[in-house]
Design a protein that fits this description.
The chain is mostly beta strands. It has one domain: Sandwich (Immunoglobulin-like), CATH 2.60.40. It has one helix at 4-9; strands spanning 49-58, 65-73, 79-85, 89-100, 103-108, 112-114, 119-121, 127-134, 143-150, 155-164. Strand 9 (143-150) and strand 10 (155-164) form a beta hairpin. The chain binds copper (II) ion. Copper (II) ion is lined by residues 95, 106, 128, 130.
Length: 169
């Protein structure tokens, strides 16, 4: 795989044009232990959560946007995702869309467990990040940083690509 230092490099240019593109499509490499500006919270477990296919469904005007990605837990321990935040949104929350008695609705979830060596997929119709109060108008093609937080104190910054709503990834 890749050295930890190389992974760190992948999300340095959060708003720039140099978001890395790899042969198999763009993959956002994740770094654990970068936490909230409080280094004592960092958990030096290495990059054992890998994020990929991170995108935001663009919607016009001020409608809340949904954020989606795939997280792979490469470690031998379960990891619990407890929240997310972004300088680009006043509010980021974990949501789940569910069918209840034939009616689709969504509700906030406190946390999501990712099993050891498991995969958590956020996708329309299921888990998503509810992104509200954007600091700036978003446009398809923009790149937005979102920091994911885990129960063990680790944090993971991921760059999301804004895509038009009718584009199926
Ligand atoms: Cu929602």
């Amino acid at each position: 795989m890749h050295a930890p230092g190389e992974r760190i490099h992948g999300w340095q240019d959060l708003h720039g044009d140099r978001v890395r593109r790899r042969p198999r499509g763009w993959i956002v490499y994740a770094v654990l232990g970068v936490s909230l500006g409080v280094s004592t919270f960092a958990t030096p477990l290495g990059p054992d959560i890998q994020a990929s296919e991170a995108w935001i469904r663009w919607l016009p005007a001020d409608l809340p946007s949904g954020g989606y990605l795939t997280l792979r837990n490469l470690s031998n321990e379960p990891r619990r995702l407890t929240g997310a935040s972004s300088p680009e949104f006043g509010s980021v929350s974990l949501h789940q869309t569910r069918d209840a008695h034939g009616v689709s609705g969504m509700s906030p979830v406190d946390s999501i467990l990712i099993a050891a060596h498991g995969t958590l997929q956020f996708a329309p119709g299921g888990y998503h990040m509810m992104l509200m109060q954007p600091a700036h108008a978003l446009h398809p093609g923009d790149h937005v940083p979102i920091t994911l937080r885990f129960a063990d104190g680790a944090a993971l910054q991921v760059t999301f690509e804004v895509r038009a709503a009718d584009v199926v990834p």
